[in-house]
Amino acid sequence: MTNKQKLELTWIGKEKRPRLEPRIFLEDSELSFQGEKKEGLFNDNLLIHGDNLLALKALEQDYVGKIKCIFIDPPYNTGSAFSHYDDGLEHSMWLSLIRDRLLILQSLLSIEGSIWITIDDAEGHYLKVLCDEIFGRSNFIGQVTWQKTTSIHNNAILFSSNTDMVLAYAKNIDFFSMGRIPRSERNTQDYKNQDDDPRGPWASSPLHVSLTSGQRGKQYALTGKSTGLYPIVGPNGQEVYPPKGRCWAYSPETIKDFERQNLIWWGKDGNNQPRLKRFIKDNKEGVVPSTLWLSEDVGHNQEAKAENNTLLPDLDKLFSTPKPERLLERVIRLSTNPGDIVLDSFAGSGTTGAVAHKMGRRWIMVELGDHCETHIVPRLKKVIDGEDQGGISKLVNWQGGGGFRYLRLAPSLLQKDEWGNWVINKEYNAGMLSAAMCKHMGFTYAPSETQFWNHGYSTETDFIYVTTGSLAYDQLKRISEDVGEERTLLICCKAFMSEGADFPNLTIKKIPQSILNKCEWDNDDYSFTLNVLAEDDVELYDDEEEA
């Protein structure tokens, strides 16, 4: 395989891509909730009820490049049916469904952002290759092993599964910055003061690095030389070189500066390999996270079920494998700062939003099930009112505050009438129609209070007007004169009569004809269920082998 060739995962139906309708959102004010306003807390958090693929498409226009952290816990496709997700999808269909979502999620991430995906080994290794393709192998942050349970299941046929994996990718690894986790008592014990340094306890790390990796390795392979291969004179006068296959990580000048600052440790007898001293007082922000997350540090499924049961008596029964708040706290701590936006498009029991809220982050969650209203809303209200003192509340000294908006996806803009013709959905009023057409045409919906023809803008001088009426020549002439020579206007209307006149500052399109071919209409279900398979595809998937 040449350097230009790209390794890709293939599966049945990969070439099929849904043509999603960019829906508008409708707020349900009875379910939106405003708590006490506090500095640093946000009221523009979004809880969205609806198909998550359509919801992600609806978020695109306003949130591309703005999400700092995405955490998703998608259906694992293990072959066991969950209460709210049909988790036994055929392998190829599962890959298509997760691919479609990841492509939009990738576009929503900010340049400094990252995505964290929990999965098990039923699909985890396929997902890794798929994520390499979508996010780029160079943007792979790492794979965390999370201890999800401490119990041994003796009814397991082979292994008793105690862990899940968490795949983490950056939007652009060059701009991603990993946070730190708090120093534990075990970490603190690693710091000692073997030479009674007045600066206090310290730990040490090697002064050498790999000679054959990275740009340094490429240079060595080409020339057989390295700027890091030189002797350092130890306290006993001996010349010391780095171990075989290694080179010094610093220049001779930097090494001498370390020596002047008493930052090099040669061991008690002065004959060891030199190591760089790092003082605990200079490393207050915490420690670098490892790829093994034990339940004692970030919780496990049973802890999460107990948290849910404390909040709402039957919430623990709805989800057999919920994620603990401490797990989400670690992900959010490592990947965001206060004020950043966290997105979870598989909200489940609402843990991501609850934890992000307590940590002073903005959040967006999407959930299709009815429990979005019956369980997530009450949970978040308890968080906002300060009643939820479980989970990470005491860790972050949570006292309540903030709020959220409850949004639903609008129905499809177009539906077929009794004769099979596509027409504007009767549920749409004038405001909804204007907002939807703005989204379809790439405009920001911002109706003017003074200019009847100004429903939105794409630039400072380009505007849009939407009407279901038919516009006559006199009306178009008056609008053109009002718009003026310095501005342009896109008019979307049912019909128009220009009588052969040309209005240079107006572009006129008929609806619905102008948008008929833009997307799939009147499709409300792209969910992780078997009924998304088209009837003519069923026999193919029954007969073919897995991808």
From TrEMBL:
It is an enzyme of class 2 (transferase). Its EC number is 2.1.1.72. It catalyses: a 2'-deoxyadenosine in DNA + S-adenosyl-L-methionine = an N(6)-methyl-2'-deoxyadenosine in DNA + S-adenosyl-L-homocysteine + H(+). It holds the Pfam family N6_N4_Mtase. Keywords: Methyltransferase, S-adenosyl-L-methionine, Transferase. Residues 186-208 are annotated as: Disordered. Transmembrane segments: none annotated. SUPFAM superfamilies: S-adenosyl-L-methionine-dependent methyltransferases (SSF53335). The keyword Membrane does not apply. Residues 186-199 have a biased composition (Basic and acidic residues). Residues 67-371 form the DNA methylase N-4/N-6 domain. InterPro entries: DNA_methylase_N4/N6, DNA_methylase_N6_adenine_CS, N4/N6-MTase_EcoPI_Mod-like, SAM-dependent_MTases_sf. It comes from the Bacteria. Belongs to the N(4)/N(6)-methyltransferase family. This is site-specific DNA-methyltransferase (adenine-specific). It comes from Marinomonas phaeophyticola.
